[in-house]
Design brief:
Blueprint (H helix, E strand, L loop, with lengths): L13 E6 L17 E6 L9 H12 L18 H10 L12 E2 L4 E3 L2 E9 L19 H12 L4 E9 L23 E8 L7 H8 L17 H20 L4
């Protein structure tokens, strides 16, 4: 959603990972010497627009106060984006019991060395001690944060994820330029390439919150081996840079 809202409202949920100390030249001239690789995801496997032109039309309509009609531009049924409307409705899902109990997807494709790939981060049972989070009061505005605090800070229980890669098969319909198409796992199964452990920690402190609010994530923070590809990713470069600059300026950082 474009505005802060209670966690019990239907919406997409995101996850971002920033690796530090990554060797190699950064993709962006402004990032040289930082040694970062970001992974930016949200909890739905495909996007509700296909390409940059449709993104522009859809976002402009939503900014004009349109919701469903953003997917029905005009009276000509050939222009209606009914399939994309259903993707958008599926994206606006109920909140999970905890941010640590859902799967997050890259949605758009990236280079994986010489291959093209998408990635996801999914909870990995068996690599962390078994833990069942207590039920949260979903009427509390920030109950997802409370669930995170309960597990990591109060109960001192870590969380484990698997980072998985799905590589493109040129013989299958796995398009680069249409992010509304979900790459079928029957065509290319996900393979685990890394394990992630979120340790028990005291994260909800003024110092940590300030550091978090001044971080910037982007699919373009990284190295050539993991270059974002496709039109939507090129669009995201400009959008993420503009949003980050606006937020940091408002925070008094630049």
């Amino acid at each position: 959603n474009a505005y802060p809202q209670f966690d019990n409202m239907k919406d997409a949920r995101g996850m971002a990972i920033k690796l530090l100390g990554v060797p190699g030249d950064q993709l962006l001239p402004s990032q040289q010497g930082r040694g970062e690789q970001d992974f930016v995801m949200f909890n739905h496997a495909n996007f509700f627009v296909s390409d940059v032109a449709e993104y522009r039309q859809n976002v402009a309509a939503q900014a004009d106060g349109k919701k469903v009609m953003a997917f029905l531009p005009g009276w000509d049924p050939r222009q209606w984006q009914v399939r994309h409307l259903f993707i958008a409705l599926a994206t606006l899902s109920e909140a999970p019991p905890s941010p640590l109990l859902t799967t997050y997807f890259s949605v758009s494709p990236y280079k994986f060395g010489n291959l093209n790939a998408k990635f996801r981060v999914t909870p990995e049972a068996g690599t962390c001690p078994a833990y069942t989070p207590p039920a949260q009061n979903r009427d509390v505005p920030n109950f997802l944060r409370s669930a995170l605090y309960q597990q990591l800070s109060t109960d001192r229980q870590p969380a484990c994820f698997a980072l998985q890669i799905q590589t493109q098969d040129a013989k299958r319909y796995m398009p680069i330029e249409d992010t509304s198409v979900r790459w079928k796992e029957s065509d290319a199964p996900f393979q685990t390439v890394a394990h992630i452990q979120v340790p028990a920690q005291d994260f909800d402190t003024p110092k940590q919150n300030l550091m978090c609010d001044n971080l910037s994530f982007s699919p373009w923070h990284g190295i050539e081996a993991h270059r974002p590809i496709g039109g939507i990713n090129r669009l995201r470069k400009a959008v993420y840079e503009a949003v980050s600059a606006y937020r940091l300026e408002r925070n008094g950082v630049r």
